[in-house]
Amino acid sequence: DEKESILGTLQMTLDYTATSQVDATAALTPFLTSAPSDLELLGEFELDMPLLDLLDTYYADPPDGAEASANPVWAQYIKERGDTEVETHRWEPSPAHGGWVRVVTFRSLTHAPIGPSTTMTTNTWQCTGYDWTHDGTVSQVTFQIKVQLHDIPYGDIFTVEHSMTLTKSSPSNNNGVSVKVRLVYLAIPFSSGCMFKSKILSQTKTATHESYVLWFRLLKEMHNAPGTSIAATSVNSAAKKRAPLVRMCSIVDEEVALEEIFENQRMHIFGKWGPNYLWPTDRSRFSNRQGDKELSFNKVECPEHWTWTSEWKVDMKYTECDEEGWSYATDFPRFKYHLAKGKSNARKVGSSVRRRRWVRTMCLNPDADVAF
């Protein structure tokens, strides 16, 4: 009986271990929110270099104490795109999604004819098919990237998602260097409706494609190129200065735009809300998104060659809000954290500040003979 009891316990332990492993695999959630059928082919690219060299040289963590921009190709890519404030985190295992993930934050240009010149951007990468902690052979690696644009209106209701497959193929030259074929796919999922959705889709596809074309062109031109060194192509730390934002304007394309103003309030100790309870260190009653510029409805003028297409109105779809359009937080800086983390701003216990977004749309006068 004792023998049978021990064997039964052992069998149960083995069954439980096997079941746990299956459950752990089944519990993995897709990294991208887009369905595979939603991903649209963006381009195919080829390079003459070993896949393992490509990964270790351009996608692995930089050496301790070094920045990713120290790599000459990345440095030139960042310079030509105009990115600043680049911060690359290290690859970490992902129990939730499988593979490895890392976060890259930077300030990118918006290339808008008017309005904001830059936006803080977060790229979250996932890598499957390669273990960064072990050297070895590799035949195919997939990178999936989720892009969040934090400082543009409607940036909180859509993400840009890429899927890039790097595949090892047969040697194509006398040196036996393998050709790597890149298949790049793109999807732009929206969490809610937006009047400018079609414009956002078309312009984002174009900008994303141009970025990939730039990256692979630089790889072809600079990999093993004579004279290419970290010193020769380092990023100038004194980056070109840009004019500070006085107001926030969302440019969807060259013909449609909108202005935004945020109305801010604080709760009194007795539970009443109002602008008169704002602290001296708080933002103004009406401000831009960052809260560092005071704005006024009657001082926002339509730019030359543009025409207003609506009156000022509360945006009820910008983020989760109450029936009057207010979103809530414990303090004003928390709004940026909420958006970056994908959290809503619904009213919760302990909220002491609130804000709502006013918008007014405009369009380019079709009779205006002007070039941007």
Automatic annotation (TrEMBL):
Keyword Electron transport: no
Keyword terms, alphabetized: Membrane
PROSITE patterns, per the entry: VAST
Major localisation: membrane
Localization in the cell: Membrane
Positions of the VASt domain: 38-227
Transmembrane regions: none
GO cellular component: bounding membrane of organelle; cytoplasm
Protein's name in the database: VASt domain-containing protein
Organism from which the protein derives: Aphanomyces astaci
